[in-house]
Design goal:
The chain is α+β, with helices and mostly antiparallel strands and 482 residues long. A five-stranded mixed beta sheet has the order 1-2-8-5-3. A hairpin with a 2-residue loop joins β6 and β7. α8 crosses α18 and α13 packs across α16. This is Cytochrome P450. Its main location: membrane.
Length: 482
């Protein structure tokens, strides 16, 4: 993570930061903060947390601390003191709190990559304004218009990728596919050179979002910030061209999400600043890219390992094709709604391996929870594990059972199932991800049979959960299907 940094320089930097952190923490010594360990100066317990994530042992990392300190405990992550609040009540406390109490403001690393004016940083009227415009492209009424285009893109991508290959890496393919979906459908970026360059920059930037905030040349964080600068440099000329086309009436604000933000006016009837637009462009690309790629990769991984699941999904998808009327060859919105079993498999997969292990909020004022003080400026973290694997909420939680999402005998309590967040902080792209995933799996199973090259391949978090070896599979075209 750190290359070519003189030891004495690094030592001096660490000691200075440790002194500043000790001053900051001393302000809270008289408070009744939760029990726990803040770990090493600056680094805290970040390295052990990230190591547990990479090994898909985040639940064990949590359980070790819960057994010592209870379901509310303190630690230090990404350079900031952090309180973990585990369980349904804790999820509700964090996700239902107003932004003037617990803000969605992220740790320094995410802030530097996403930007200070991304949707997760905005509050109040500006947040509602920007979110409202984004939702115009992500609500079900709009998604209906994307299905055919998505289907064509997935079909073409599969044919191109598998034409001369018997083996492919699914993770790489899914990341590129979800990126192409965002370029084509959400942002209308068609220039191939620009798309390829942006893709490489986004990969580097996303890695930096979950690294230590050490900004020395050679660190992951440093490289990520350079990649972000390149992204901004590449998108500004596109924005300027579209702004000109909008003013001439050549382009409509409904064409794509970038044009929509450029045409938007704030409460003072002024256009949005360039940095706000670029921050949200980066945020939306990251949000629409990795979450979907994760779920689609895990679906292929799971179907490879469970023939019964695979056969049921295949049966559902082929029945949809069989029931088509006329000469229609592409997927329709109505057919997406018929993929109930396939989506239940995805829901159960996200319960057991949630795309987000959890997420941060930041206390904007001194607050209390269950008798503990959480000082202003501290981070608060919820973790899906606290409810997803709770036997009182999901019976036999370690058993993979898609039927638990089919007319459950008792409703799933609010703030208990959190693959897309909840409450005020529900993911705005959850329906987009659903349609994208179902479209991709439909094409995969109707066109190909496949098997894992490494049947025992495990899952790792980086920080999203992926098969650890990239999920290479051997592919075989399904007879008489194109």
């Amino acid at each position: 993570m750190i290359e070519g940094i003189p030891f004495l320089v690094l030592l001096a930097f660490t000691l200075i930061l440790a002194f500043l952190l000790s001053k900051f923490l001393s302000k809270s010594q008289t408070k009744n903060v939760p029990k726990g360990s803040l770990g090493y100066p600056i680094i805290g317990e970040t390295l052990s947390f990230l190591k547990a994530q990479r090994q898909d042992k985040g639940s064990e990392w949590l359980e070790e601390r819960i057994s010592k300190y209870g379901h509310v405990f303190k630690t230090s992550l990404m350079g900031s003191p952090t309180v973990f609040v585990i369980g349904q009540a804790g999820n509700k406390f964090i996700l239902a709190s107003s932004d003037d109490v617990l803000s969605a403001k992220k740790p320094l690393t995410l802030l530097k990559i996403f930007g200070r004016q991304s949707l997760v940083e905005l509050t109040g009227p500006r947040h509602r304004l920007v979110k409202g415009e984004m939702m115009k492209f992500l609500k079900p009424e709009c998604l209906q218009n994307y299905v055919k285009k998505m289907d064509e893109l997935v079909n073409a991508s599969l044919l191109r990728e598998f034409k001369d290959n018997e083996t492919i890496e699914v993770v790489v393919f899914m990341k590129k596919l979800s990126y192409d979906m965002a370029c084509n459908i959400l942002f209308d970026i068609q220039d191939e050179h620009t798309r390829e360059a942006l893709f490489e920059d986004f990969i580097i930037a996303f890695k930096a979002a979950h690294s230590l905030p050490i900004n020395f040349p050679g660190t992951t964080f440093w490289r990520g910030q350079r990649a972000r600068e390149k992204i901004v440099d590449r998108i500004l000329p596109i924005m300027n061209k579209r702004r000109e086309e909008l003013s001439k009436g050549v382009l409509s604000s409904t064409n794509d999400m970038l044009s929509c933000l450029l045409a938007l006016r704030d409460e003072n009837h002024q256009p949005l600043a360039d940095d706000l637009i670029t921050d949200n462009f980066i945020f939306l690309f990251v949000a629409s890219h990795d979450t979907s790629a994760t779920l689609m990769s895990l679906m292929i991984w799971k179907l490879s390992r469970d023939p019964e699941l695979y056969n049921k999904v295949l049966e559902e998808q082929m029945e949809i094709i069989k029931q088509r009327e006329g000469t229609e060859e592409r997927l329709t919105w109505a057919e997406i709604q018929k993929m109930k079993y396939t989506w239940r498999v995805a829901q159960e997969l996200m319960r057991m391996i949630p795309p987000l292990f959890g997420s941060f909020r930041k206390a904007l004022k001194d607050i209390t929870y269950e008798g503990y003080d959480i000082p202003k400026g501290w981070q608060v973290y919820w973790a899906a594990y606290g409810t997803h694997m709770n036997n009182d909420i999901f019976k036999n939680p370690h058993k993979f059972d898609p039927s638990r999402f089919e007319n459950p005998t008792k409703p799933i309590p609010p703030f208990s199932y959190l693959p897309f967040g909840a409450g005020l902080h529900n993911c705005i792209g959850n329906e987009f991800a659903r349609v994208e995933t179902l479209t991709t799996i439909h094409n995969f199973v109707k066109m190909y049979e496949w098997s894992q090259v490494n049947p025992e391949e495990a899952i790792t978090r980086q920080p999203m959960p992926y098969p650890s070896l990239g999920l290479p599979i051997k592919i075989k075209p399904r007879f008489n299907v194109s």
